[in-house]
Write a structure and sequence with these properties.
153 residues, 4 helices
């Protein structure tokens, strides 16, 4: 009876683990394709801060690269807005009656930059989740194999 239970549970865990890993790999490929379709490329080294030099000319195709490009956007937005957030600029604009064209354009810059940054960070987070699911799928499959080995022994 124990052997049969180990066999059933082992087989279920093996199938579940393999399915999880396969689905995560498919998800990762979709993320990679979506990033590639966007044709996002890091500028040449001459136009990059030193911290991003290793990405010079690289097309964004992975979660890590999406995170780095999001950080680059964050650097540019912070420089353009003197470190102020969209909400802070909106408050300044409201305080002056909304008639300041410079603040209006700055608010648009902050909004667009932070929106792009958020999209790239979402791709990074999705990539991280696929990494977790691949690992958990492998763990479940390994446990399933151990149960199957125990059932046979």
């Amino acid at each position: 009876m124990t052997s049969a239970l180990l066999l059933v549970v082992g087989a279920a865990l093996l199938v579940a683990g393999a399915t999880m890993s396969a689905r995560a790999l498919t998800g990762r490929q979709r993320i990679r394709q979506e990033l590639a379709d966007q044709k996002i490329c890091f500028p040449d080294a001459d136009h990059l801060p030193a911290a991003f030099a290793r990405y010079a000319g690289v097309q964004v195709r992975t979660g890590g690269q999406a995170r780095a490009f999001a950080d680059l956007i964050g650097t540019h937005v912070a420089k353009a807005t003197a470190g102020r957030t969209y909400a802070e600029i909106t408050e300044e604009l409201r305080t002056c009656g909304g008639a300041d064209e410079r603040l209006t354009k700055l608010r648009e810059t902050a909004f667009m930059g932070q929106s792009l940054r958020a999209s790239l960070l979402s791709a990074y987070q999705a990539w991280q989740i696929t990494t977790l699911v691949i690992g958990l799928g492998g763990l479940l499959a390994a446990i399933g194999l151990a149960f199957l080995a125990q059932a046979v022994a």
